[in-house]
From TrEMBL:
PROSITE patterns: FKBP_PPIASE (PS50059). Residues 6-83 form the PPIase FKBP-type domain. It comes from Methanimicrococcus stummii. GO terms for molecular function: peptidyl-prolyl cis-trans isomerase activity. This is Peptidyl-prolyl cis-trans isomerase. The lineage of its organism: Archaea, Methanobacteriati, Methanobacteriota, Stenosarchaea group, Methanomicrobia.
Amino acid sequence: MALKKGDFVRLNYTGKMEDGKVFDTTEEEVAKAENVYTPQGLYGGDVIIIGYGHTIPGLDKELEGKEVGASGEVTIGPEDAFGMPREDLMQSVSTSKFKDGKAQVGMVIEQEGRQGVVTKVIGRRATIDFNSPLAGKSVTYSYKIESALETPEDKIKGLFALYTGVQDADVKIDGDAAEIEIPTGITFNQRWLFMKGKLANEVLENTDLKEIRYVETVKKAEKEEKAE
């Protein structure tokens, strides 16, 4: 059955630059072999919703109409990959915005869910580039559509992992509502604060669920009794 916009799939992929260098992969062994492995990375395939911008536009278009089990390789130009460099994504800010007022070229910062790199520091002003490092470049992706997700629990767990990096979220379905237990470690994570509304909306739009509940549990710490 051909996949369409709104379908949840688990996708394995490897992205390469024009010179063949791997810049991203869901395959752990490939990541290690190409020296792009990170212990915090999720491997084994990402869960995405086709047509919802969870991957670059060119790969998204490639997947629509395919069937589960399909694999292939596609070269994607800059416009459908990471875009062309944009002047409006270059920001000049006061160095007072940085910790201890110190900004250095190459410093990576995160702001409202976006990552930027300091490219220039002159006096008390720093230039931050929020363009993707791959902006203006063509890329090649090899991919395999591993499976389609059917149950609301699997769909929510997959998106939760995509947005937070936390696997095996505790999800309970109660009629037409879903209850998601939020690990205390991500409660104040800036990316999570920015993405939790997006996750809820995408689930509600593409399932029969009508309500998403985020539950955070705080337990009283147990004090160890001092030995007499």
